[in-house]
Write a structure and sequence with these properties.
The protein has 641 residues and is α+β, with helices and mostly antiparallel strands. It is built from 13 helices and 18 strands. The protein has a 6-stranded antiparallel beta sheet, with no helix packed on it. The protein has a 5-stranded antiparallel beta sheet with strand order 1-2-13-7-10, with helices on one face. Mean pLDDT is 79; it is low at 1-14 and 20-40.
Length: 641
């Protein structure tokens, strides 16, 4: 009985232990198993070491893709991030909505107490962000809004009150009528991401927009210049190309599709970008053809644009890919680059060289963009050079045109200086002509007055002297009376001769005097010889000065007639240099008795001759000795001060 009781007791205790074990296992199953089933691992990410603070970038997420704009919330599939679905790869049609949702989990304990933010780029196009089931961001108001966010960075502060200790869930929902993507996704310190966002926003939005509007402004100025200089067709093509480049680059910084043609607004906007790429390149080529004066440029330009319209028709039909437009574009770009390299080598001036360099670099920018697109798969990381290529070539032309303008201004300045010199010369010539006209008028007046005086002297005094001389001779008046009348008549003739215009010809002047006195010399038995060399006219020899010369020569000849008892006399005129100054010397030389120039004082006649010589600003010399005749020389300069 005891053994049975003991066995029963053992059996009861074993049953109780088994029951307790079962209850413990059930407790564990009821509490631990749901935790195991419900616990989800955090999304794969990597630490961004290049940024300060704590920043992580998700390299993997859970995604669900659906048609329309609904998000089923199930069917999540792990995939690498960025998750991009391009129209070219999917076969979707423009106008059909597709939705993509991405779910990312992270542990907030690694970030400390700093405010957090979400950074994403290339997530397109209508976007909603939820943190732990609560919407924290939305970039559209209506479902029909057409946003353009493929190239724009987005920074979203994450509210601190929604951040849980431990695991947190981010859901990014995006839908679009064209390519669809959830791009780079980064979570971390708001301060660190703010600086990164500012840099990316500047280079991907602000800088392209500034470049584009600056380019259009330059194009507008070029168009205004062309309105004033229609012959410079390259200015018109530059203006056209800037407008086309503006349309081509519009998509890089515009945040909302400006074409409201639902449901095809986004399709038209994207197609406009593709087609503008070709026509902007063609317009740039047209500009460069005119700038470098390429032969047959008109036909080349017409051919490019006709081909462009054909390509648009083919591409718009949907039977081919975008390569039908991009391939001819690259061919034109390459042709321009070859021309640019040729001009860079051929020309050594900045006007052609800089523009040639930019044209040569255009394919390099295209290949760079292609390499960036392949490397980063369109996730928005790369900054494309195409956004600035139009501005670069426009600014290169501005530099070239500025150089041309500076040369034109310099030429204009030289022309103005030359014009001023010509005007000054013309003014001086006009003044000289006016002076000459006045001088001629004065000379004509004086000539007329001289002619009148000469006529009066001839008809009046001359006639009276001739009459008186004739009466004196007929009445056998004293010889002294006849001599006086004859001398007076000779003086009158000499005075009249001084009034005759001789144009500065002193030889003619003295020759006329010799002719007047030839009769008196012959009556005195003096043989007169005439010696004349080649002499230039004396410009300053006017009637007053001519009378001085005649009076000096008359006095010299009169002395020979009155005092010398000479049988021969020489009257001459020739050129002579005196004290380094060119001039003319006139002289009389006789073989008379002469006089002692040392012991005999000169008479009044010689003093008068000296006074007249000084009035002429010339020099007078007398050479004589007893028994050796006398010489009188008068030197006159060609030019006197």
């Amino acid at each position: 009985m005891r053994h049975q009781a003991r066995d029963c007791s053992k059996a009861d205790s074993g049953s109780l232990a088994l029951t307790l074990a079962r209850l413990a296992l059930l407790f564990l199953l009821c509490h631990a198993l749901p935790s195991v089933l419900w616990a989800q691992p955090h999304s794969s990410y990597e630490r961004v070491e290049s940024l300060p603070g704590t920043v992580i970038e998700f390299t993997e997420g859970e995604f669900t893709l659906s048609d329309g704009i609904s998000f089923p919330g199930e069917g999540w599939i792990k995939r690498p991030n960025p998750n991009i679905h391009r129209m070219l790869d999917t076969g979707w049609k423009f106008g059909d909505y597709h939705s993509l949702a991405g779910r990312f989990r992270f542990n907030s304990e690694g970030f400390g107490q700093e405010p957090l933010a979400l950074y994403t780029i290339s997530t397109r196009n209508n976007i909603t962000v939820r943190l732990n089931g609560v919407q924290v961001f939305r970039n559209f108001a209506e479902a029909s809004d057409q946003k353009n966010t493929w190239y724009q960075p987005i920074l979203i502060p994450l509210p601190s009150n929604l951040i849980k200790s431990g695991s947190n869930e981010l859901v990014i929902e995006a839908y679009s009528q064209e390519s669809l993507a959830i791009g780079r996704v980064m979570v971390g310190s708001h301060g660190a991401l703010q600086g990164y966002y500012n840099t990316k926003y500047f280079w991907q939005v602000t800088a392209p927009s500034l470049a584009n509007f600056t380019m259009v402004l330059v194009g507008l100025l070029a168009f205004l210049f062309w309105l004033g200089r229609r012959q410079e067709i390259e200015l018109l093509w530059l203006a056209i190309s800037t407008v086309l480049w503006f349309l081509r680059n519009f998509q890089y910084y515009i945040g909302e599709t400006p074409i409201e043609l639902n449901p095809f607004g986004m399709a038209v906007f994207t197609t406009l970008h593709i087609h503008a790429s070709y026509f902007a390149t063609a317009a740039t080529a047209a500009f460069y053809f005119y700038f470098t004066q390429v032969p047959h440029r008109k036909w080349l330009i017409v051919g490019m644009f006709v081909l462009g319209f054909v390509l648009i028709a083919i591409h718009s039909s949907g039977v081919t890919t975008d390569l039908i437009v991009y391939l001819p574009t690259m061919i034109i770009v390459t042709a321009i680059a070859i021309m640019g390299f040729r001009d860079l080598v051929k020309y050594r001036d900045i006007e052609h060289g800089l523009l040639g360099f930019v044209m040569m670099a255009a394919p390099l920018a295209s290949f760079y963009d292609l390499a960036m697109a392949v490397r980063y798969s369109g996730d928005g990381t790369a900054t494309y050079a195409a956004t600035f290529s139009g501005l670069f070539y426009t600014l290169a032309f501005v530099v070239s045109f500025g150089r041309r303008a500076l040369d034109a201004f310099a030429h204009l300045r030289r022309t103005n200086i030359l014009l001023e010199e010509r005007v000054a010369e013309a003014t001086a010539d006009l003044a000289a002509s006016e002076r000459a006209r006045r001088d001629l008028l004065v000379e004509q007046t004086l000539a007329g007055e001289r002619e009148r005086i000469m006529q009066e002297m001839h008809d009046g005094i001359g006639s009276n002297l001739i009459t008186a001389l004739t009466v004196a001779r007929s009445q056998n008046l004293p010889e002294s009376t006849i001599k006086t009348l004859s001398g007076a008549l000779s003086d009158l003739k000499i005075t009249v001769d001084s009034l005759e215009p001789v144009e500065g010809d002193i030889v003619t002047l003295i020759g006329n005097l010799r002719h007047r006195l030839a009769g008196d010399l012959a009556d005195a038995g003096i043989d007169c010889k005439w010696e004349v060399g080649e002499c230039q006219p004396i410009e300053w020899l006017d009637p007053t000065n001519a009378l001085h010369v005649l009076r000096i020569m008359q006095e010299a000849i009169a002395n020979v007639l009155s005092h010398s008892n000479a049988s021969e006399m020489t009257i001459g005129c020739k050129e002579r240099v005196h004290n380094g100054v060119n001039g003319i010397v006139t002289y009389t030389i006789d073989n008379g008795r002469g006089f002692d120039s040392v012991n005999e004082s000169p008479g009044k006649g010689l003093s008068n001759m000296q006074a007249r010589a000084r009035a002429l600003r010339g020099n007078l010399w007398s050479k004589s000795s007893a028994g050796n005749g006398c010489s009188i020389l008068l030197w006159l300069p060609y030019i006197r001060e």
